[in-house]
């Protein structure tokens, strides 16, 4: 399984961006997925997660009401709609997927990251 993010960029405070995470390979083995971010000098943190079918989502308190996670399993793609962006949202955003290996072990895979910069 491989994951590739896209959609990052520079946006002014109050603006919006939509990130995408495209999966390839054994996509049918992917279960839950999530978006994480890492700001300069800080640890990577969970932003939002979504269950395999998309029916269950969780958000960090800092993004509740502003970000929306979703996935389209037919397109093997997960999204993060980010509205009302703040300078403190500036970070490299990573997508992560959990998937079952051929030996029935639950593994994880990460994308390469996409940079989001919010100017004040």
**Main beta sheet:** 7 strands, mixed
Which structural class do you get from the secondary structure elements?
mainly beta
- Mean pLDDT across the residues is 97
* Oligomeric category: single chain
Give the CA-CA distance, first to last residue. Answer: 37 Å
Q: Report the radius of gyration as a whole number of Å.
A: 14 Å
- Please give the count of helices: 0
Helix content: under 10%
- Gross morphology is elongated
Element-by-element helix/strand order: EEEEEEEEEEE
Spans where pLDDT lies below 50 across 5 or more residues: none
Strand content: over 45%
Q: How many E strands?
A: 11
Would you mind describing this structure in some detail?
The model has no long low-confidence stretch (mean pLDDT 97). The strands form two sheets. Strands 2, 4, 5, 6, 9, 10 and 11 form a seven-stranded mixed sheet that branches. This protein has a four-stranded antiparallel sheet with strand order 1-3-8-7, with no helix packed on it. The protein contains no helices and eleven strands. It has 120 residues and is an all-beta fold.
């Amino acid at each position: 399984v491989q994951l590739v993010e896209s959609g990052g960029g520079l946006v002014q405070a109050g603006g919006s961006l939509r990130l995408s995470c495209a999966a390839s390979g054994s996509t049918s083995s992917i279960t839950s997925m999530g978006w994480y971010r890492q700001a300069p000098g800080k640890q990577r943190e969970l932003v939002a997660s979504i269950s395999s079918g998309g029916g269950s989502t969780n958000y960090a308190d800092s993004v509740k009401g502003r970000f929306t996670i979703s996935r389209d399993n037919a397109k093997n793609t997960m999204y993060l709609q980010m509205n009302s962006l703040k300078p403190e949202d500036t970070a490299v955003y990573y997508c992560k997927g959990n998937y079952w290996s051929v030996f029935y072990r639950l593994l994880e895979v990460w994308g390469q990251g996409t940079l989001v910069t919010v100017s004040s």
